[in-house]
Design a protein that fits this description.
CATH class of the largest domain: Mainly Beta
Shape: elongated
Number of domains: 5
CATH superfamily of the largest domain: Immunoglobulins
Structural class: mainly beta
């Protein structure tokens, strides 16, 4: 028995010794893997002729996302093979790859190499070599941001071309390549002296060529010049945008009776419209870059909409079926889903109407009541207007002359009072002759001076004669938009009776005076219109809060 216990203990001890694993406890390993130079291909080699590069590390490593993280500048013509053998990363050139003579190459590994256990990334892992007798030493630095939001863009491909023709960026591979980090910063080392065109693109297909129809681009107005004595060259901010062809029809929606929706790239001006057959009645409205053609086709026949050079066929849809399901209600509300068990094709019951909204009314702003369909008539005998609980007739509710989807409400406003607008069934008639079957109610309140705040924006360093757009946003909701042409470098804009929350102001340089922000156009040598944003602290009730937006003086220059 004693011998048996001794044997059992020995077996357990041997089993414990045979198990290999990470020790428990102790501090977490935060040290990134490092290259063991003595066991690796020499970095910074001159007159380089090797076909395989070995990088051996001081610990076990893994390779991740090789195809996106590992890239070479200048770019190779053939994709290299990157593999892992033990602790060694093996970089193998394609057998047909021809390296350029007298050129400095940099292999960037990004975050591809990490240690095995903790995933620590090998920091700033690069391998540099030259096919000539010296290493180019100039480094380019800069930043890529979204042209409208000014937020940094990560993983944008920044490309340098020694061919300075405009068409080179769509026809050729770049001479140099780098990618931006999480903060949008670009760093391109080992650039030789010369003159370059610099662009940044979101290269989704990683073919190192810009696709104008689908990829965003940023470009500089002037060329980047690297002198032999330069060690560091800072390029101007690259502002990326997605230029859509002006007036190009990109999307169409024709599967719903009563409305054809046409989405454009940049709808500078509505195209000329006509329909066939002519008995189809129609009315156009516009929502940013979308053109909506409302139509009434009582004969339910197929018809055609001609929008400029575009032909849009519309199949025959039943007006009778449409009217059975049609519901006229406020345009800024959404009907709740049908009750459980009810088929979507059945008419929605009044119980699915959302509860009435309460709208705070600013003393100086017109009140527009939006609807989901064009309106043609109002029966004021079916409109009830209450101040608190008292019915009064001192108000006006009329169609808005510029927007058939809205009614303009005018009334004498008293601070602290609550107003109720009630539209009884039959009060409104829409484009198809349908009336509201529901009682529609909306509340309006005029806050007291202690419940609201005033915002004063001091605009500085404006360019006299330049058109600007000033937008005030509450989160993602546009509170108000103003357009003006600056008469002097300083200007003050006052927004009264605002809900005391934190707002964001956007000031847009409207260089073409079309009343909207426009993206850049590479081939027209036009930069995106500049946007200056100011995120402000929450307003204080009963106070005037003043903030400043100062326009930088470094106006972009036009590339000749």
């Amino acid at each position: 028995m004693k011998n048996f216990l001794i044997a059992l203990a020995g077996a357990a001890l041997l089993g414990a010794c045979a198990r290999i694993g990470s020790p428990e406890g102790g501090p977490k390993d935060t040290t990134p893997p490092r290259v063991v130079e003595a066991k690796s291909t020499p970095n910074g080699a001159l007159n380089f002729r090797e076909r395989i590069i070995y990088l051996t590390f001081d610990e076990w490593v893994t390779l991740q996302e090789v195809n996106t993280q590992v890239f070479v500048s200048p770019p190779l013509a053939k994709r290299p093979e990157v593999t892992l053998k033990g602790r060694t990363v093996v970089f193998r050139f394609d057998e047909d790859e021809q390296l350029r003579p007298n050129t400095t190459y940099t292999i960037f590994f990004g975050t591809a190499v990490r240690d095995l256990h903790e995933g620590n990334v090998a920091q700033d892992l690069r391998f540099v070599f030259s096919t000539g007798d010296h290493i180019d030493s100039t480094t380019l630095v800069g930043v890529v941001v979204d042209a409208f939001s000014n937020e940094p863009i990560e993983n944008a491909s920044v490309l340098l071309y020694d061919n300075l023709a405009d068409s080179a960026i769509v026809a050729e591979r770049p001479y140099y390549l780098t990618r931006t980090d999480k903060s949008g910063q670009l760093r391109l080392p080992n650039v030789r002296p010369g003159t370059y065109r610099c662009i940044a693109i979101e290269d989704a297909d990683q073919n190192l060529r810009w696709r104008p129809e689908s990829e965003r681009i940023a470009f500089l107005d002037s060329f980047v010049v690297v002198q032999p004595t330069d060690t560091l060259v800072a390029v101007p901010v690259l502002r990326m945008s997605a230029p859509a062809p002006a007036g190009r029809l990109l999307a169409r929606r024709v599967n719903q009776y009563g409305a054809v929706r046409l989405g454009y790239g940049r709808l500078l001006a509505p195209p000329e419209l006509r329909v066939e057959p002519p008995q189809v009645r129609w009315l156009p409205t516009r929502e940013q870059d979308t053109l909506v053609v409302w139509y009434d086709n009582p004969d339910s026949v197929a018809w055609t909409l001609y929008a400029g050079a575009d032909t849009v066929p519309v199949r025959a849809l039943s007006k009778t079926t449409f009217l059975k399901q049609h519901r006229l209600f406020f345009g800024d509300e959404r009907l709740a889903p049908p009750p459980a068990g009810r088929r979507p094709t059945q008419p929605t019951t009044p119980a699915t109407l959302p509860p009435p909204r309460t709208v705070n009314v600013r003393s100086e702003r017109p009140v527009l009541v939006p609807f989901g369909a064009p309106l043609t008539a109002i029966d004021t005998s079916r409109v009830v207007w209450l101040a608190d609980s008292t019915e009064i007739r001192d108000f006006s509710l009329t169609a808005d002359s510029t927007d058939p989807l809205s009614l303009r409400l005018l009334f004498h406003r008293e601070r602290g009072r609550r107003y109720t607008l009630t539209l009884l069934p039959g009060a409104l008639t829409d484009f198809w002759g349908a009336t509201n079957a529901d009682t529609l109610t909306r509340f309006f309140t005029v806050p007291t001076e202690k419940q609201v705040g005033n915002l004063v924006l001091a605009l500085e360093n404006l360019t006299p004669g330049t058109a600007y757009i000033l937008r005030l946003l509450n989160g993602n909701v546009l509170e108000e938009e103003r357009t003006f042409v600056a008469e002097r470098p300083e200007q003050r804009e006052v927004f009264a009776d605002l809900t005391p929350v934190a707002y964001t102001a956007q000031l847009i340089e409207d260089t073409n005076r079309n009343g909207r922000w426009d993206s850049g156009d590479y081939f027209a040598h036009r930069q995106p219109e500049r946007v200056f944003s100011k995120k402000m602290d929450a307003l204080r009730p009963g106070w005037d809060s003043e903030f400043t937006i100062s326009v930088p003086s470094d106006t972009p220059r036009r590339r000749e």
